[in-house]
Amino acid sequence: MNTKDLKQKILEAKKETGTIVLAHTYQDPDIIDVADVTGDSFFLSKKAAELKAKRVIMCGVRFMAESVKILSPETETILPVPSATCPMAEQIAPERIRKFKEENPTAQVVAYINTTAAIKAECDVCVTSSSAIKIVEKLDADKILFIPDQHLGSFVKKQLPDKNIILWDGYCPVHAQLTAQDVLECKAAHPDAKFAVHPESPAEVVALADMAGATSEIISYAKSQPGKVIIGTEKGVVDYLSTHEENGDRFIQLAPHKLCCEDMKKISLEDVYNAIIGSCGEDIQLPEDLRKKALVSINRMLELG
Ligand code: SF4
Question: Quick check: 305 and 131 in contact, CB under 8 A?
């Protein structure tokens, strides 16, 4: 079946089954085309809750489907390809967090939203890349453990020098590959371009940027600029901007050979269709006590952020 026909079948199947398709911005443009909601991971889970969706297909990675389930336990939440996981989301074991808290009873543990539900259940508060600085600034603790991303943690620490922030040594294997050399070469090829980067990137790369922020902030910034913008995040963002904005060729992909997340690209248009009709995917389940504990950390994020 060709792509056009498959898209048409997806639209019909969504209607027949009352299914909502959520797609992270890093997904393939064909999946974005058939999605009901597109955006950052936490935005998608909030949207699913607002829509009171009965059934959603989460086109992204496992922690994103778990976040939908944490906020909307009644929603049937399908991850089309069960092996699509974020390597960073599991780079600290929940037992290690418990041990840290036993050893540091007055400390607080801050978890990036890109973590499993089991990790969220052990931390004190979650943060997104756009709310991290604001939330950590408000924490009244002698010691703050920031998990798992050392680069986002170091970005926050730099903005808040008065806070005693301890970094975990996790990282996003996609953004962490970037080097200052990648940026300098791209800037040399596009001397008039601005440079926007995700703070999951190493500090030497962020230091060269005109702006650093979450995916949605990068998109807003890129749209607001009159000229070329070098985009230092997963290639789905440039795909999205190029197809949804006029003069799409003004968005320049930094290091295209590095900035492609294999896990985010595991889902195909066929998988989306098969998940809608119930012939593939995993129905995400979370133990209720764990879900409730993870929800506490997310609710605290909403209160502070
Ligand atoms: S881009 Fe990085 S943080 Fe995002 S899903 Fe892929 S590995 Fe995880």
Answer: yes
Residues 242 and 105 in one domain: no
**Cα(79)–Cα(275) distance, rounded to whole angstroms?**
8
pLDDT of residue 260: 97
**pLDDT the model gives residue 24:** 97
194: left (phi over 0), alpha (psi -120 to 50) or beta: beta
Which atom of ligand 1 lies at the shortest distance from residue 262's CA? Answer: 6
Ligand 1 centroid from CA 2, angstroms: 30
- Burial of 245: CB neighbours in 10 Å, binned 0-12, 13-18, 19+: middle
For 246, the domain range is 175-253
Residue 237's pLDDT is: 97
CATH number at residue 125: 3.40.50.10800
CA dihedral of 269, 272, 274, 276, whole degrees rounded to 10: -150
Q: Which atom of ligand 1 is nearest to the CA of 61?
A: 5
State how many domains the chain has.
3
Q: Who lines ligand 1 at CB under 6 A? A: 61, 86-88, 114, 172-174, 234, 261, 263-264
Q: Nearest C-alpha to atom 6 of ligand 1 is from which residue? A: 261
Over the stretch 44-88, which tens digit does the pLDDT of each residue have? Answer: 999 999 999 899 999 999 999 999 999 999 999 999 999 999 999
Task: Check whether residue 23 and residue 159 sit in a common domain.
Answer: no
Q: What is the pLDDT of residue 142?
A: 92
Helix, strand, coil tally for the chain in percent (to 5) = 45, 15, 40
Q: Are 252 and 231 spatial neighbours (Cβ–Cβ below 8 Å)?
A: yes
Residues lower than pLDDT 70 in the chain = none
Is residue 163 included in any domain, yes or no?
Answer: yes
Together in a domain, 166 and 294: yes
pLDDT of residue 1: 83
pLDDT of the residue at 129: 95
pLDDT of 246: 86
